Each structure stands twice: as C-alpha cells, then as structure tokens.
Amino acid sequence: LWSDMLKYHQIFCMLQINGEVYDFGGQLAYLNMKKRLFWGASFYHFPYRAMYWTPKIDTINGTPYYVDSYQLIRVFEENLSVFSQYPISSKLRFEGGVSYAHYSFRVDSINNYFSGGYNVGQTKEKVDGPPSYDIGRAYIAFVGDNTTFGLTSPMDGYRYRFQVDQMVDAVNVTGISLDYRKYYFKKPLGFAFRVMHYGRYGDDQDLLYPIYLGNDYLVRGYNYNAFNKSYESYNENFLDINQLTGSKIFVMNAEIRYPFTGPKRFALIKSNVFYSDIVFFLDGGVSWFNNTVPWDKDSDIRYFWNPNPSFHTPVYSAGASIRINLFGYMVLEPYIAKPFQLQNVPFTTGFIISGGGF
User: Fold this and answer.
1) Neighbours of 235 (CB within 10 A)
2) Whole-number Å distance between alpha carbons of 249 and 14
3) CB–CB of 170/135 below 8 Å?
4) Cα separations in angstroms, 350 against 195, 258, 283
5) Contact 191/204 with Cβ under 8 angstroms?
6) Separation between Cα atoms, residue 339 and residue 118, nearest integer Å
7) What is the DSSP letter of 267?
8) What one-character DSSP code corresponds to residue 300?
9) Which pLDDT tens digit goes with each residue over 108-120?
10) What is the largest CA-CA distance in the chain?
11) Can you tell me the distance from the alpha carbon of 327 to that of 356, in angstroms, rounded to the nearest whole number?
C-alpha cells in the first residue's frame, strides 16, 4: 500500500504466489479521494483450481496398471473495473461502478500408474478445455449508515443498501439486492434485526452457480456437517440440501447481544484488551428459482414447517455464539445452533470470520 501524506491518492498492490506458475495471481488498484466524488480503478488476474479424480485400469503392452487419473482444471479471471462513491451526507451515499471480466481455461490430464502397490510412472498433458467467455457488469447502489459500533458489531442505529446490477455478454442477468438492518441498545443489551433479499432475474438467472441459503452468514446451522448427520436418518419430511439453493433468497435475522468482556462501564467483565459479546440469535430464510415472488401461488415455495421434497420450504434455526474482537483486525464467532428443519440433528456447530456481525 502506498499513498501521499494526506491519503488523497492511494495505490494497492497484491501478489499471490502458490503452486505452479499458472497459479500465480495479483491485483493492482488506484484510489483517488481528493474530491467529494472519489473514484478508483482496479485490475486483477486470479486463477481458480478444481480437480476431478477418476480411477481406472489401463493395459500397456499387455500389462495391466491401476491408474489414478486426475483432471486439473484452472479457471483464469482477468478483471478491469472502475468504481466511484458520492456522499450526500455523513449518513448517505451513492455508489456505482462498471467492470469487464474475461474467463479462460486450462485443463491438464495427470495419470499416475501403479503396479504391485508402487507408483511406476506419471504422464501429464494439456487437453482441450471449455471455450473462453466475457462478462460485463454495471451497478448502482444507494447506501445509508448511521450506526454506532460496539465491542464486536453495531449496537445502535441503522444500515441499509439498495442495489441494482446488470450483467451482459455471456450472461444476461439483473441482480437486485435489498438489505435493511436496525440496531437498538438498551443497557446492558443490544438488539439487532436484519431483513434481506438478493435475487437474480432475467433469461439467464439459473446459469450462474446457485446461492446457498445455509451459508453461515445467512441462516446458521445448515452447514455441510449438519447435513451429513441428517442424511443418517431419512423419512418423508427429509430436507434435501438442494432445497436450500436458488437464484433468489429472502433472509430474516434477529440477535440479542450482551457485552461480555470490555470496558468496565459497558461489559460484564472488565478488560482493556479482550473485547467480546455473547449473542443469542434466531435465523430464518427461504430460497427459490423462478421469477415469481414468494407469496405468489405460482411460486415453487410452500410455507410448511416440515420440509416437502416437491417444494422449497423456509428453514429456521436458533442458537448462541460468542463474538470475539481480535484486536480490531477481524471478528471470530464460534456458534452452536439448532436447525429446526433437519431431522436427527439436535445441535450443530460452526465458525464465522467476519468484520463484525451483520
């Protein structure tokens, strides 16, 4: 990071070195904050790796070999973007930006040959991959923020973000994000509420990877470990993990926050270094795919308490966590939750790393 003394002009540079030379990545960004309308630009190249394993038997010169066959797939993303913010006041601002990204692929076929339990050789060759494609994106957002931050998260005030974005070229998708959060502090407790909708609309809304409602930042308690436990017992009210995916989600969260360690006049246990909150939460949400709204009779959602394999149904969870402020750098949050729609799972645990609650 470089900047002038007044931080009007800032340059960010990052280099990621890992694996082979194809796995190197980096980013260069510039930010101009001299005027009220400040703007920036960024360019980055990042590779993403995936590997698929296919064991097989291959015969060479009449000798059979056990072959560990791998398809190593790299997706390369080059992205150029320009963005800006215009503050209306200390509490309100507009944001906007445009970007263009190019995606390309490299696929390597790797074969390890085994005979008698020993690795006797390896072959590696580049094979044809999917064709490259481009995606352009533009967005505009109206943002409000009037929060007072507590030990680990906002304790009083409000936040909201209303955003519309459009993707063009390889896919044609309109994204809509509505996110409203309200906070109250009645000593010694803080109360937090969030209502959020994010949806993809348009002809290509289902081409992108679906949104997973069980993400720990959305509805806690429905992570993959919890589903593995649930799969041990199957009945007609069984919740399938695919019922938590969709091109659209609606989420509601409520929390009670109790300052646990921190300043004496604020927290239960005095500490000038270790700041933490005890949190009790209630989460709920639903995901769906089609273009209808959740209350439309033609929607693929049904409001049953028990899961129904033919529809998307809401899921709920309740639990507790401890939110720890790690010296202002990040917030750690281990939690325990009861996922009400998962059979045979009394409780599940998870771990969140964030900038401080929702």
Assistant:
1) 9
2) 33
3) yes
4) 22, 20, 14
5) no
6) 46
7) S
8) S
9) 988 888 887 787 8
10) 81
11) 12
Residue pair 308/283 in contact (Cβ under 8 Å)? The answer is no
Rounded distance between C-alpha atoms, residue 171 and residue 200, angstroms: 11
Please tell me what DSSP assigns to residue 301. Answer: B
Q: What is the pTM of this model?
A: 0.81
Side-chain-facing half-sphere of 1: CA atoms under 13 Å: 4
Q: Please name the residue that has the structure tokens 């209630």.
A: 282
Give the 3-state secondary structure of residue 130.
Answer: coil
Helix, strand, coil shares, percent, the chain, to 5: 5, 65, 35
Please, which residues bridge with residue 156 across strands?
148
Using only the alpha carbons of the chain, give its radius of gyration: 25
Residue type, 254: A
Q: Are 299 and 293 in contact (CB under 8 A)?
A: yes
- C-alpha dist (Å) from residue 9 to 30, 31, 37, 44, 99: 7, 6, 13, 19, 21
Q: CA-CA distance, 211 to 170, in Å (whole number)?
A: 19
What pLDDT was estimated at residue 237? 58
Strand 248-262 relative to strand 269-270, pairing: parallel
* pLDDT (tens digit per residue) in 87-98: 999 999 999 999
C-alpha atoms less than 13 angstroms from C-alpha of 90 in its C-beta half-sphere = 2
87, containing H or E segment: strand 63-87
Sign of CA dihedral 280, 282, 287, 292: negative
Q: Is the distance from CB of 110 to CB of 70 less than 8 angstroms?
A: yes
What's the length of the chain? Answer: 358
Q: State how far the Cα of 278 lies from the Cα of 153, in Å rounded to an integer.
A: 11
Place of tokens 């002009």: 9
Please tell me whether the peptide bond between 55 and the residue prior to it is cis, using omega within 30 degrees of 0.
no
pLDDT in tens, 120-171: 888 888 888 889 999 999 999 999 999 998 888 999 999 999 999 999 998 9
